[in-house]
């Protein structure tokens, strides 16, 4: 297994691939305790109609996987439990997870609801280790969603994707730049991302079973056998991938939050904390020359119940005093004080990112 990452070369990119573990099925098992430990299939039907959208790890042991016809899944695991997908729920959880990503970097490239690439070469928390950032992200995902994610860390997207599969579920693996070629040489050809069953069979027929076998072929020979994609195979077995992480959306919110080491119910202390947190949010807003119209307060109680309270204005704000005043007003619509809290957060959304940071501060009417 690759060793922990110690990247120090500033010219080396630091890429993380996050892949949620059996995402749809895990959400169902989280929300419905009766499904936990059961061979669960999301999608399809017990009558054999449709296709498997997701399979829990309990049913994967029988050879069931996503995109498999339900009829075949039943033959492999007759006692499997089928549930209908709840895509609105999955999208909501996915958005929650992506918000975690944006706390660390704006360079987030979602591939689907359950996976994404992150470029953390430069990041919001100034941490030089991509491995430590990946650990923090996985910890926050587990704490805030009660779901697990696997992560791969490498200097390019291809290797990060492979690494995220090495220690599933709930794992973290790192491939260092100097280890990449040796690692790929010892990898079975079917484990290369992008090599499907048909291509794997064709490679086997050509005597290509491991990365080391593929590496013996010249670029011209691979193009002759596989067409233009042969150039891709020539590069990936050498760990060459210059693709950049391409964000698919503009950042929609800026926020800060903190989980306390001990649950808190002292309202005076909480108000002071919100003032400090508002200052941090205001600093981030001004650093990015941004302002927002919507302030959201997030409260997580000691029993993990989580709620949000929001208010919107017809003008933009980014001043700490305005944010504090709004957050404390929103606090009144919670049970904070009578119930202990373990987490508080403040977010500004509905952003304007094009005004150069020059916003007119207006009075905020609460009555």
TrEMBL record:
Cofactor: Mg(2+)
Alphabetized UniProt keyword annotations: Cytoplasm, DNA damage, DNA repair, DNA replication, DNA-binding, DNA-directed DNA polymerase, Magnesium, Metal-binding, Mutator protein, Nucleotidyltransferase, Transferase
Active site: 115
Domain UmuC residue range list: 15-196
EC number(s) on file: 2.7.7.7
GO BP field: DNA repair; DNA-templated DNA replication; error-prone translesion synthesis; SOS response
Annotated GO CC locations: cytosol
Gene3D superfamilies: 3.30.70.270, 3.40.1170.60, 5' to 3' exonuclease, C-terminal subdomain, DNA polymerase, Y-family, little finger domain
Role according to the record: Poorly processive, error-prone DNA polymerase involved in untargeted mutagenesis. Copies undamaged DNA at stalled replication forks, which arise in vivo from mismatched or misaligned primer ends. These misaligned primers can be extended by PolIV. Exhibits no 3'-5' exonuclease (proofreading) activity. May be involved in translesional synthesis, in conjunction with the beta clamp from PolIII.
Protein family membership: Belongs to the DNA polymerase type-Y family.
Protein's name according to its UniProt entry: DNA polymerase IV
Organism: Fodinibius sediminis
């Amino acid at each position: 297994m690759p060793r922990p990452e110690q990247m120090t070369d500033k010219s080396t990119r630091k890429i993380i691939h996050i892949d949620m573990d059996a995402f749809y099925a895990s959400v169902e098992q989280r929300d419905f305790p009766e499904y936990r430990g059961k061979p669960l299939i999301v999608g399809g039907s017990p009558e054999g109609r449709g296709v498997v959208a997701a399979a829990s790890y309990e049913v994967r042991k029988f050879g069931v996987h996503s995109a498999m016809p339900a009829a075949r899944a039943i033959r492999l695991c007759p006692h499997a439990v089928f549930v209908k997908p709840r895509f609105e729920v999955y999208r909501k959880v996915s958005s929650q997870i992506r918000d975690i990503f944006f706390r660390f970097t704006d360079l987030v490239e979602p591939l689907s609801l359950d996976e994404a690439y992150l470029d953390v070469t430069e990041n919001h928390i100034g941490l030089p280790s991509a491995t430590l950032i990946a650990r923090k992200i996985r910890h926050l995902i587990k704490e805030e969603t009660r779901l697990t994610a696997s992560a791969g860390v490498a200097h390019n997207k291809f290797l990060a994707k492979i690494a995220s599969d090495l220690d599933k579920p709930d794992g973290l693996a790192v491939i260092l730049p100097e280890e990449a070629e040796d690692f790929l040489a010892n990898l079975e050809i079917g484990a290369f991302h992008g090599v499907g069953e048909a291509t794997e069979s064709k490679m086997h027929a050509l005597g290509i079973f491991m990365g080391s076998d593929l590496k013996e072929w010249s670029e011209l020979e691979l193009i002759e056998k596989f067409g233009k994609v042969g150039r891709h195979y020539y590069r990936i077995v050498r760990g060459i991938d210059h693709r950049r992480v391409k964000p698919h959306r503009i950042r929609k919110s800026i926020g800060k939050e903190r989980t306390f080491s001990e649950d808190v119910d002292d309202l005076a202390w909480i108000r002071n904390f919100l003032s400090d947190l508002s200052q941090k949010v205001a600093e981030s807003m001004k650093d990015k020359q941004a302002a927002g119209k919507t302030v959201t307060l997030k409260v997580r109680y000691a029993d993990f119940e989580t709620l949000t309270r929001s208010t919107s204005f017809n003008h933009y704000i980014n001043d700490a005093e305005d944010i504090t005043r709004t957050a404390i007003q929103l606090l009144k619509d919670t049970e904070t004080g009578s119930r202990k809290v373990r987490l508080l957060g403040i977010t500004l959304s509905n952003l304007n990112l094009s005004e150069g940071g020059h916003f007119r501060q207006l009075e905020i009417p609460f009555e």
